[in-house]
Automatic annotation (TrEMBL):
This is 4-diphosphocytidyl-2-C-methyl-D-erythritol kinase. Catalyzes the phosphorylation of the position 2 hydroxy group of 4-diphosphocytidyl-2C-methyl-D-erythritol. Signal peptide: none annotated. Transmembrane segments: none annotated. The keyword S-adenosyl-L-methionine does not apply.
Protein backbone atom coordinates (compact mmCIF):
# COMPACT_ATOMS: atom_id res chain seq x y z
CA UNK A 1 0.00 0.00 0.00
CA UNK A 2 1.21 3.49 -0.81
CA UNK A 3 2.20 5.07 2.56
CA UNK A 4 0.77 8.40 1.38
CA UNK A 5 -2.65 6.76 1.32
CA UNK A 6 -2.47 5.66 4.97
CA UNK A 7 -4.54 7.73 7.38
CA UNK A 8 -2.50 10.43 9.06
CA UNK A 9 -3.05 13.43 11.33
CA UNK A 10 -0.90 16.58 11.53
CA UNK A 11 -0.79 18.47 14.83
CA UNK A 12 0.97 21.78 15.52
CA UNK A 13 2.15 22.72 19.02
CA UNK A 14 3.91 25.89 20.16
CA UNK A 15 7.22 26.62 21.82
CA UNK A 16 7.03 28.83 24.91
CA UNK A 17 8.72 31.70 26.66
CA UNK A 18 8.57 32.10 30.44
CA UNK A 19 7.73 35.79 30.99
CA UNK A 20 8.19 35.24 34.67
CA UNK A 21 9.86 32.25 36.31
CA UNK A 22 10.18 32.05 40.08
CA UNK A 23 11.94 28.92 41.36
CA UNK A 24 11.38 27.78 44.95
CA UNK A 25 12.71 24.83 46.92
CA UNK A 26 13.32 21.31 45.67
CA UNK A 27 10.77 18.63 46.50
CA UNK A 28 11.80 15.07 47.36
CA UNK A 29 11.08 13.98 43.76
CA UNK A 30 13.80 16.38 42.53
CA UNK A 31 11.35 18.87 41.02
CA UNK A 32 11.38 22.49 42.15
CA UNK A 33 8.35 24.48 43.21
CA UNK A 34 7.61 27.02 40.46
CA UNK A 35 5.51 30.09 39.90
CA UNK A 36 5.69 30.94 36.24
CA UNK A 37 3.88 32.72 33.40
CA UNK A 38 4.12 30.90 30.11
CA UNK A 39 3.40 32.44 26.74
CA UNK A 40 3.03 30.24 23.66
CA UNK A 41 4.75 31.77 20.63
CA UNK A 42 4.58 31.39 16.87
CA UNK A 43 7.63 29.14 16.67
CA UNK A 44 6.01 25.74 16.44
CA UNK A 45 6.57 22.01 16.08
CA UNK A 46 4.55 19.77 13.75
CA UNK A 47 4.01 16.11 14.45
CA UNK A 48 2.46 13.92 11.75
CA UNK A 49 1.06 10.65 13.10
CA UNK A 50 0.50 7.88 10.53
CA UNK A 51 -1.09 4.49 11.19
CA UNK A 52 1.59 1.79 11.60
CA UNK A 53 1.81 -1.65 13.20
CA UNK A 54 4.67 -0.71 15.60
CA UNK A 55 6.07 2.50 17.12
CA UNK A 56 8.55 4.50 15.02
CA UNK A 57 9.73 8.08 15.07
CA UNK A 58 11.70 10.30 12.70
CA UNK A 59 12.92 13.85 13.30
CA UNK A 60 13.66 16.54 10.77
CA UNK A 61 13.74 20.30 10.65
CA UNK A 62 15.67 23.51 10.66
CA UNK A 63 16.80 23.04 14.26
CA UNK A 64 19.83 20.85 15.04
CA UNK A 65 18.11 17.47 14.97
CA UNK A 66 21.04 15.02 15.15
CA UNK A 67 21.08 15.19 18.94
CA UNK A 68 17.39 14.31 19.22
CA UNK A 69 16.81 10.65 20.18
CA UNK A 70 14.30 8.65 18.13
CA UNK A 71 13.80 5.85 20.66
CA UNK A 72 12.02 5.72 24.05
CA UNK A 73 14.12 8.66 25.30
CA UNK A 74 12.11 10.85 22.94
CA UNK A 75 9.19 12.48 24.77
CA UNK A 76 6.86 12.24 21.74
CA UNK A 77 7.50 8.48 21.54
CA UNK A 78 6.81 8.19 25.27
CA UNK A 79 3.62 10.22 24.81
CA UNK A 80 2.32 7.85 22.09
CA UNK A 81 3.10 4.76 24.18
CA UNK A 82 1.56 6.30 27.31
CA UNK A 83 -1.67 7.06 25.41
CA UNK A 84 -1.76 3.51 24.00
CA UNK A 85 -1.33 1.95 27.44
CA UNK A 86 -3.81 4.34 29.09
CA UNK A 87 -6.52 3.55 26.51
CA UNK A 88 -5.74 -0.10 25.78
CA UNK A 89 -5.07 0.72 22.10
CA UNK A 90 -3.23 -2.19 20.54
CA UNK A 91 -1.85 -0.76 17.30
CA UNK A 92 1.09 1.56 16.76
CA UNK A 93 2.03 4.76 15.02
CA UNK A 94 4.72 6.38 12.94
CA UNK A 95 5.52 9.85 14.26
CA UNK A 96 7.27 12.32 11.96
CA UNK A 97 8.48 15.23 14.09
CA UNK A 98 9.20 18.49 12.20
CA UNK A 99 11.21 20.73 14.51
CA UNK A 100 11.51 24.51 14.43
CA UNK A 101 11.90 25.16 18.16
CA UNK A 102 15.57 25.11 19.22
CA UNK A 103 16.67 21.76 20.69
CA UNK A 104 17.49 22.01 24.43
CA UNK A 105 16.90 25.75 24.06
CA UNK A 106 14.69 26.49 27.07
CA UNK A 107 11.59 26.89 24.88
CA UNK A 108 9.85 23.58 25.57
CA UNK A 109 10.35 22.07 22.11
CA UNK A 110 10.40 18.49 23.39
CA UNK A 111 7.31 19.20 25.49
CA UNK A 112 5.55 20.59 22.40
CA UNK A 113 6.39 17.37 20.52
CA UNK A 114 4.89 15.31 23.36
CA UNK A 115 1.71 17.41 23.48
CA UNK A 116 1.38 17.20 19.69
CA UNK A 117 1.91 13.43 19.75
CA UNK A 118 -0.83 12.99 22.38
CA UNK A 119 -3.36 15.01 20.35
CA UNK A 120 -2.32 13.41 17.04
CA UNK A 121 -2.53 9.82 18.30
CA UNK A 122 -5.80 10.51 20.10
CA UNK A 123 -7.29 11.72 16.80
CA UNK A 124 -5.67 9.00 14.66
CA UNK A 125 -6.68 6.14 16.94
CA UNK A 126 -10.12 7.57 17.74
CA UNK A 127 -9.48 7.16 21.47
CA UNK A 128 -11.43 10.40 22.12
CA UNK A 129 -9.93 11.45 25.46
CA UNK A 130 -11.24 14.58 27.18
CA UNK A 131 -8.97 17.61 27.56
CA UNK A 132 -8.80 16.88 31.30
CA UNK A 133 -7.58 13.32 30.68
CA UNK A 134 -5.05 14.51 28.06
CA UNK A 135 -3.80 17.10 30.57
CA UNK A 136 -3.34 14.36 33.18
CA UNK A 137 -1.26 12.24 30.77
CA UNK A 138 0.68 15.36 29.70
CA UNK A 139 1.64 16.13 33.32
CA UNK A 140 3.00 12.57 33.67
CA UNK A 141 5.32 13.18 30.71
CA UNK A 142 6.90 16.45 31.92
CA UNK A 143 6.23 19.69 33.75
CA UNK A 144 5.92 21.81 30.57
CA UNK A 145 3.80 19.38 28.52
CA UNK A 146 0.38 20.51 29.87
CA UNK A 147 1.15 24.09 28.82
CA UNK A 148 2.02 23.01 25.28
CA UNK A 149 -1.46 21.42 25.11
CA UNK A 150 -3.09 24.50 26.55
CA UNK A 151 -1.22 27.34 24.76
CA UNK A 152 -2.07 31.03 25.09
CA UNK A 153 -0.75 32.76 28.18
CA UNK A 154 -1.04 30.93 31.50
CA UNK A 155 0.19 30.88 35.05
CA UNK A 156 1.88 27.62 36.03
CA UNK A 157 2.33 26.60 39.66
CA UNK A 158 3.25 23.32 41.36
CA UNK A 159 5.98 21.94 39.10
CA UNK A 160 4.73 24.33 36.41
CA UNK A 161 2.03 21.85 35.44
CA UNK A 162 -0.91 23.31 37.40
CA UNK A 163 -2.26 25.84 34.91
CA UNK A 164 -4.56 28.83 35.21
CA UNK A 165 -5.25 30.90 32.07
CA UNK A 166 -3.95 34.47 32.38
CA UNK A 167 -5.81 37.45 30.95
CA UNK A 168 -3.41 38.98 28.46
CA UNK A 169 -4.44 41.83 26.20
CA UNK A 170 -3.08 42.10 22.66
CA UNK A 171 -0.11 40.53 21.01
CA UNK A 172 3.52 40.63 22.09
CA UNK A 173 6.40 40.76 19.62
CA UNK A 174 9.56 38.92 20.52
CA UNK A 175 12.92 38.46 18.87
CA UNK A 176 14.50 35.13 19.76
CA UNK A 177 18.23 34.48 19.59
CA UNK A 178 18.88 30.72 19.70
CA UNK A 179 22.31 29.26 20.48
CA UNK A 180 24.10 26.64 18.44
CA UNK A 181 24.54 24.46 21.53
CA UNK A 182 21.70 23.55 23.89
CA UNK A 183 21.78 23.41 27.67
CA UNK A 184 20.66 20.64 30.02
CA UNK A 185 17.62 21.72 32.06
CA UNK A 186 18.45 19.54 35.13
CA UNK A 187 22.02 20.93 35.08
CA UNK A 188 20.75 24.54 35.13
CA UNK A 189 18.40 23.80 38.05
CA UNK A 190 21.33 22.09 39.83
CA UNK A 191 23.50 25.15 39.29
CA UNK A 192 20.84 27.40 40.75
CA UNK A 193 20.66 25.22 43.90
CA UNK A 194 24.46 25.25 44.25
CA UNK A 195 24.59 29.00 43.66
CA UNK A 196 21.93 29.62 46.31
CA UNK A 197 23.81 27.41 48.79
CA UNK A 198 27.09 29.22 48.12
CA UNK A 199 25.73 32.73 48.16
CA UNK A 200 23.19 32.18 50.90
CA UNK A 201 21.10 34.04 48.34
CA UNK A 202 17.93 33.41 50.29
CA UNK A 203 17.97 34.02 54.04
CA UNK A 204 15.47 31.20 54.60
CA UNK A 205 15.09 27.95 52.73
CA UNK A 206 13.46 28.55 49.32
CA UNK A 207 9.66 28.24 49.68
CA UNK A 208 7.87 25.07 48.56
CA UNK A 209 4.93 27.07 47.29
CA UNK A 210 5.11 30.45 45.56
CA UNK A 211 3.01 32.85 43.54
CA UNK A 212 3.42 35.05 40.49
CA UNK A 213 3.62 38.69 41.70
CA UNK A 214 0.37 40.62 41.02
CA UNK A 215 2.33 43.31 39.11
CA UNK A 216 3.21 40.75 36.40
CA UNK A 217 -0.45 39.81 35.93
CA UNK A 218 -1.49 43.46 35.91
CA UNK A 219 1.09 44.23 33.22
CA UNK A 220 -0.28 41.37 31.10
CA UNK A 221 -3.85 42.59 31.54
CA UNK A 222 -2.81 46.13 30.57
CA UNK A 223 -1.20 44.73 27.40
CA UNK A 224 1.50 47.42 27.47
CA UNK A 225 4.88 45.95 26.50
CA UNK A 226 6.69 48.85 28.23
CA UNK A 227 5.08 47.98 31.57
CA UNK A 228 5.59 44.26 31.03
CA UNK A 229 9.25 44.76 30.14
CA UNK A 230 9.92 45.93 33.70
CA UNK A 231 8.26 42.83 35.14
CA UNK A 232 10.07 40.17 33.08
CA UNK A 233 12.06 37.95 35.42
CA UNK A 234 13.72 34.54 35.41
CA UNK A 235 15.27 32.99 38.55
CA UNK A 236 17.11 30.48 36.33
CA UNK A 237 18.88 33.26 34.44
CA UNK A 238 21.65 33.63 37.02
CA UNK A 239 22.41 29.90 36.72
CA UNK A 240 22.28 29.96 32.90
CA UNK A 241 24.67 32.95 32.87
CA UNK A 242 27.13 31.14 35.14
CA UNK A 243 27.45 28.50 32.44
CA UNK A 244 27.09 30.88 29.47
CA UNK A 245 28.24 34.41 30.42
CA UNK A 246 28.12 35.34 26.72
CA UNK A 247 24.30 35.32 26.87
CA UNK A 248 24.49 38.64 28.72
CA UNK A 249 26.18 40.09 25.62
CA UNK A 250 23.30 38.81 23.47
CA UNK A 251 20.81 40.49 25.83
CA UNK A 252 22.79 43.75 25.76
CA UNK A 253 23.07 43.69 21.96
CA UNK A 254 19.33 43.12 21.67
CA UNK A 255 18.56 46.11 23.88
CA UNK A 256 21.10 48.25 21.99
CA UNK A 257 19.32 47.20 18.75
CA UNK A 258 16.01 48.53 20.08
CA UNK A 259 14.38 45.81 22.24
CA UNK A 260 12.71 46.91 25.47
CA UNK A 261 14.29 44.12 27.50
CA UNK A 262 15.86 40.70 27.09
CA UNK A 263 15.75 37.59 29.27
CA UNK A 264 16.99 34.04 29.08
CA UNK A 265 14.03 31.83 28.14
CA UNK A 266 13.38 29.09 30.74
CA UNK A 267 16.59 27.19 31.44
CA UNK A 268 18.25 28.76 28.38
CA UNK A 269 20.22 29.29 26.31
CA UNK A 270 17.68 30.98 23.96
CA UNK A 271 17.44 34.72 24.63
CA UNK A 272 13.98 36.32 24.29
CA UNK A 273 13.88 40.04 23.51
CA UNK A 274 10.58 41.84 24.10
CA UNK A 275 9.90 44.58 21.54
CA UNK A 276 7.41 47.43 21.41
CA UNK A 277 5.66 46.14 18.29
CA UNK A 278 6.10 44.25 15.01
CA UNK A 279 7.98 47.05 13.18
CA UNK A 280 10.58 47.43 15.89
CA UNK A 281 10.92 43.66 16.29
CA UNK A 282 11.60 43.35 12.55
CA UNK A 283 14.31 46.00 12.87
CA UNK A 284 15.88 44.37 15.93
CA UNK A 285 15.96 41.05 14.11
CA UNK A 286 17.56 42.70 11.08
CA UNK A 287 20.20 44.51 13.13
CA UNK A 288 21.15 41.39 15.05
CA UNK A 289 21.26 39.47 11.78
CA UNK A 290 23.56 42.11 10.27
CA UNK A 291 25.97 41.63 13.18
CA UNK A 292 26.06 37.87 12.55
CA UNK A 293 23.45 36.65 15.06
CA UNK A 294 20.75 34.17 14.06
CA UNK A 295 17.56 35.89 15.21
CA UNK A 296 13.85 35.14 14.71
CA UNK A 297 10.84 37.42 15.00
CA UNK A 298 7.89 35.65 16.64
CA UNK A 299 4.70 36.70 18.42
CA UNK A 300 2.49 35.43 21.17
CA UNK A 301 0.15 34.28 22.42
CA UNK A 302 -0.77 31.47 20.00
CA UNK A 303 -3.02 28.41 20.59
CA UNK A 304 -1.91 25.10 22.09
CA UNK A 305 -1.59 21.74 20.30
CA UNK A 306 -4.22 21.45 17.56
CA UNK A 307 -4.98 19.39 14.49
CA UNK A 308 -4.27 21.32 11.28
CA UNK A 309 -4.89 20.77 7.58
O1 LIG B 1 9.57 17.86 33.49
P1 LIG B 1 10.74 18.06 32.57
O2 LIG B 1 11.22 16.77 31.97
O3 LIG B 1 10.55 19.15 31.58
O4 LIG B 1 11.92 18.58 33.51
C1 LIG B 1 13.26 18.44 33.18
C2 LIG B 1 14.11 18.61 34.42
O5 LIG B 1 14.04 19.97 34.86
C3 LIG B 1 13.68 17.80 35.61
O6 LIG B 1 14.24 16.51 35.56
C4 LIG B 1 14.24 18.61 36.76
O7 LIG B 1 15.63 18.38 36.91
C5 LIG B 1 14.09 20.03 36.26
N1 LIG B 1 12.84 20.65 36.77
C6 LIG B 1 12.77 21.01 38.10
N2 LIG B 1 11.61 21.55 38.58
C7 LIG B 1 10.56 21.79 37.76
C8 LIG B 1 10.62 21.47 36.39
C9 LIG B 1 11.80 20.89 35.92
O8 LIG B 1 13.71 20.80 38.86
N3 LIG B 1 9.46 22.33 38.27
Amino acid sequence: MNPAALPSVRVRAPGKINLFLGVGGRHDDGYHALATVFQAVSLTEDVVATAAPGFHLTVEGAADTESVPTDDRNLAMRAAKLLASATGYEGGVHLAVHKSVPVAGGMGGGSADAAAALVACDALWGTGLSIARLHELAARLGADVPFALHGGTAVGTGRGDVLTPALARGRLDWVLVPSDEGMSTPAVYGRLDAHRDEEGALADDPPLSLDVPPAVLQALRAGDPHVLADELHNDLQVAALLERPDLQTVIDEGVAAGALRGIVSGSGPTVALLCEGPGIAARVRERLGASGRRALHVHGPVPGARVIG
